[in-house]
Design brief:
Blueprint lengths: L1 H7 L2 H22 L5 E3 L4 E3 L3 E3 L4 E5 L7 H14 L9 E6 L3 H7 L5 E7 L14 E2 L12 E7 L8 H11 E10 L10 E2 L6 H8 L6 E2 L4 H7 L2 E6 L7 H7 L7 E6 L1
Parallel strand pairs: 5-6, 5-8, 6-7, 8-9
Antiparallel strand pairs: 1-2, 3-4, 9-13, 10-11, 12-13
Length: about 260
Amino acid sequence: MTNLLKSILPRAILRSGKNIIFSFKVFINKLIHKGNNVYCPICDTSFDQFGIYGLKKRKNAQCYSCGSLERHRLIYMFIDKNLKLFENRDKPLRLLHFAPERFFYKLFSNYEMIEYTPCDLFPEIYDYGGKIKVKKVDITQIPFDDQSFDLILCNHVLEHIPDDLRAMSELYRVLSNNGQGIFQVPLDYSKNHTYEDFKITDPKERKIAFGQHDHVRIYGKDYKDSLEKVGFNVEVNDFINQFTKAEKFKYGILKSELIYYCGKH
């Protein structure tokens, strides 16, 4: 039925319908979860708690208003505090954003001093109806010149890419010499080495092996080494430790997630 509707109805109508449903859910959740125990810095909204989310259900995880998760709120606060992205600038910041999340897309596309380039291999998934079109880009063959971007965000993408070293090399190539990149992946800190096995192709087996049916590996603590191998200067930033236990609950952020903050030598 879903495929039939997509073939009959114009994309704009389908998108409008999705937006209406999304807005209605937000309205209802704001009523049900009204409160001030938690706060989402991305959409500036408070609730009694965040929603449950994940294959392994996590409490206090998803914002009922914008849909952000723990990692998104942590990244937002890190950028806001450390990169001064949202302060006045004398020239536009060139931002490349892979697999652009709706809330970040909305935020970045409305800043006049951000030259925003959202992209993905399947841009139709990210049809938000905004003023900036999501470009079709293969992360292993990025169609931009060397040093084209001042900031690159690539959040939970590389675990889907078979040739992740080639993707990392491309990210390095298009980043400016004074630029920064934030490249988050699902990471198992109990593993010293990344685990991948390309003989595993069945979605059910991949879910067992890698945690999700469309993942091709699970990264270990050597993820930093892989980024450094292609040339990045990698800072494994413990920004999370700046928050108290009470603040971690308030902002709905994980207790131990580290930020992989990359630049060029």
